[in-house]
Design goal:
Elements (H helix, E strand, L loop, with lengths): L1 H4 L7 H4 L20 H14 L8 E4 L2 E5 L5 H4 L1
Antiparallel strand pairs: 1-2
Length: 79
């Protein structure tokens, strides 16, 4: 907001360099096991809910329980 008030226009990475973003879907040779799919969906739901608040970009879900969400301390603290 401060930069925009100074006359700068802010744009997202997806608008200027979309090739730098990860593609959707599995990017490895191994696919998640069927029993992990529920945890993946729970993590996506948590991050979707937190997105409007610009909180975290990662979550850890184990057996349906959210055990960690990335916060201001960053990914290292999450891990």
């Amino acid at each position: 907001r401060i930069l925009e008030e100074g006359g700068f226009r802010m744009v997202g990475i997806k608008d200027v360099a979309p090739d730098l973003l990860m593609p959707e879907g599995c990017i490895t040779r191994a696919w998640p096991a069927d029993n992990a799919k529920g945890d993946i969906e729970r993590g996506r739901a948590v991050l979707t809910a937190l997105g409007p608040f610009d909180i975290g970009q990662a979550a850890v879900v184990i057996d349906g329980h959210v055990v960690a969400v990335e916060d201001i301390e960053g990914t290292d603290a999450l891990l």
